[in-house]
Design goal:
Amino acid/polyamine transporter I
Length: 411
């Protein structure tokens, strides 16, 4: 009996699950609330220029049978060490940022306690349990349901907002000016649609998918799977920006930097359009979205660090994954104990760090996919090479521009 096409999907939806979180629920909505439709160009350009570097993850993994992390070692131990250091430097802030947003939504949905740290611990423990018990297969199954629920509820909310809005909206594009606005722009770019290190995670998930399927998960199918996930992240980013623009822009209301209050404001974006009777449903959809991100990041960073550790020290151990997951969980709780008072600051730090490290992943992925280590049949086409060069220029150019502005601001 032929398998349902949905069962053939996996890593692409895991990518979407990891991406559709802070970058969409928080950053895209804030972009719409603060700038209207003026930052639509950011979503289009950054998704275009990051596309090849994300796609090279599943392309390389399925073409060679090894992850990008293995490939980094083939490029030289220095590249692998660079990846190891950058991942370690950013993994805790990334996990803390997604967990605090999830905790804020949990307070809004379940109540029980308003203590954000307690909820963060609960969410981390539940995620930990799911990954230890169900591993990849359970993660693969859960994400499909979560993405469908979120997509449907968001499309309905945006549709109602469009038809009920009486304001005339300006689609003139804006280039942010001033230190605060530029900081937000770089943060928005950093996690739109996701940090570039997710390309390495994706390569690991693609290999896991190959192990999990009776029929080979080949390169052509892996790229299609990725494209479906990638397009869905772009579509939903535009939806979230539209919600912020249609409901919050020029309304006199601003998003709070407190996780619990921010969560309620996000829910209000939906209920103002769909009615209060949908509040529970929307709260659940938003929570599952962020929970999926928390779950996938708690799986991916330890998986990547375990692989890197094994390659660097030449010794494989089944306990590496567990050790790194425990370290990440503990580190996240420690960070949240100090930063719970300002969710927006934590998100800003994590997203800006991700953008500044993006050129490393872009250059490494492009060199690897174009090298002798990748079968020639799967080398990038001329159009993909041109897009890659433009993407690298885009990422480096904006990083330098941001650092110059930051330097001038503190002179």
């Amino acid at each position: 009996m032929k398998k349902n096409w949905l069962t053939q999907l996996g890593p692409g939806l895991l990518f979407a699950g990891a991406a559709i979180g802070v970058s969409h629920l928080v950053q895209s909505t804030r972009a719409g609330a603060d700038f209207g439709f003026g930052l639509l160009w950011v979503i289009i350009l950054v998704n275009l220029f990051k596309y090849p570097f994300f796609q090279y993850g599943p392309r390389y993994a399925t073409a060679t049978g090894e992850s990008l992390i293995d490939g980094y070692k083939r490029l030289g131990k220095g590249v692998l060490i660079g990846y190891y250091i950058l991942t370690f430097a950013t993994m805790f802030t990334i996990q803390a940022a997604v967990t605090i947003v999830t905790a804020g939504l949990a307070i809004n949905l379940f109540g029980i306690t308003a203590n954000i740290t307690n909820w963060s611990i609960i969410i981390t423990l539940i995620s930990f349990g799911i990954l230890i018990i169900g591993k990849y297969k359970l993660l693969d199954s859960l994400i499909k349901v979560i993405i469908v629920v979120l997509t449907l509820s968001t499309i309905i909310a945006v549709g109602v907002a469009v038809f009920s809005s009486t304001k005339v909206h300006n689609f003139q594009q804006i280039f942010p000016q001033g230190t605060i606005e530029i900081g937000f722009l770089i943060a928005f770019l950093g996690w739109m649609p996701a940090p570039l290190d997710i390309s390495a995670w994706h390569s690991l998930w693609a290999i896991e998918k190959q192990k999990d399927m009776d029929k080979k998960f080949d390169t052509k199918q892996a790229i299609l799977d990725f494209n479906i996930g990638y397009i869905s992240t772009i579509f939903l980013a535009i939806c979230f920006l539209s919600l912020g623009a249609l409901v919050m822009y020029q309304s006199g209301n601003e998003f709070s930097d407190k996780a619990g209050v921010f969560a309620q404001q996000i829910i209000n974006l939906y209920t103002e359009n769909l009615g209060s009777k949908f509040s529970i449903f929307i709260s659940l959809a938003a929570f599952t979205t962020m929970f999926s991100t928390t779950l996938t990041t708690l799986d991916a960073s330890p998986r990547a660090m375990a692989k890197s550790t094994a390659l660097l020290f030449g010794k494989t151990s089944n306990t590496y994954y567990l050790i790194w997951m425990i370290l990440l969980a503990l580190g996240t709780v420690v960070i949240l104990s100090f930063f719970t008072s300002n969710m927006i600051l934590m998100v800003k730090i994590a997203t800006i760090l991700s953008f500044l490290t993006a050129p490393f992943y872009a250059i490494a992925n492009f060199i690897l996919i174009s090298s002798k280590h990748t079968p020639k049949a799967w080398h990038p086409s001329m159009s993909m090479k041109i897009l890659s060069y433009l993407g690298i220029i885009f990422l480096i150019g904006f990083s330098i521009w941001y650092l110059i502005n930051l330097y001038n601001a503190y002179l």
